[in-house]
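Reminder to self: C-alpha cells first, then the designed residues, so the page reads top to bottom the way the pipeline ran.
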C-alpha cells in the first residue's frame, strides 16, 4: 500500500490547478506547469478513475463546462480555504476561491451528483472528480452555482 506525502499532494494540486511548476527535485524544465485553464463539468452519474460517468447533455440545455484560469487566486492552497499562496498545508485538499456559476439552463439538467475537472472545454482528459455531498436538481429556476469554498477537491 502507498500514500502520497503532504509534499507531493501540495505540488500536484498547485501544478494541476494553480499554474505552478511541479517543483520536484530532478524534474526537467519540460515538466513546465499544468493546464493554463481547467474546466468544471457536472455529472448526473459519477465518473470513475477510468472516466465515464454521465455528463450533463449540452444539446438544447445551454450546458457547458465552466472554465477556470489556473492561478494561485483561483483555487485555495492546501493550508486553508481562501488562501492565495503556494500550498504548504497538510490537508491534501483545495477549494474554489470564487463563486462558480454555470450558464442558466434552458431545460432541466437532471440531478447533479458529481463534478469533474477536465483539461478541455469539450472532450479532453478527466483530471479529478468527486461526488457532491448533496445532489442538486438543476433547472431553469434552479441554476448550478457553487459558492466560494464549496467545491472541495482532495488528493488524500
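Designed residues (156 positions):
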Amino acid at each position: 500500500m502507498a500514500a502520497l506525502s503532504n509534499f507531493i499532494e501540495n505540488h500536484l494540486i498547485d501544478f494541476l490547478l494553480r499554474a505552478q511548476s511541479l517543483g520536484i527535485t530532478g524534474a526537467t524544465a519540460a515538466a513546465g506547469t499544468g493546464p493554463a485553464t481547467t474546466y468544471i463539468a457536472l455529472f448526473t452519474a459519477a465518473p470513475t478513475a477510468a472516466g465515464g460517468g454521465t455528463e450533463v447533455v449540452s444539446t438544447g440545455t445551454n450546458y457547458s463546462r465552466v472554465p477556470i484560469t489556473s492561478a494561485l487566486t483561483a483555487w485555495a492552497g492546501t493550508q486553508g480555504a481562501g488562501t492565495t499562496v503556494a500550498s504548504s498545508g497538510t490537508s491534501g485538499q483545495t477549494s474554489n476561491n470564487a463563486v462558480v456559476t454555470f450558464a442558466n439552463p434552458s431545460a432541466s439538467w437532471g440531478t447533479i451528483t458529481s463534478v469533474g475537472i477536465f483539461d478541455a472545454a469539450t472532450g479532453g482528459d478527466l483530471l479529478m472528480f468527486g461526488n457532491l455531498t448533496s445532489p442538486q436538481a438543476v433547472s431553469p429556476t434552479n441554476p448550478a452555482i457553487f459558492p466560494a469554498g464549496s467545491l472541495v477537491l482532495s488528493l488524500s
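The helical segments are 6-17.
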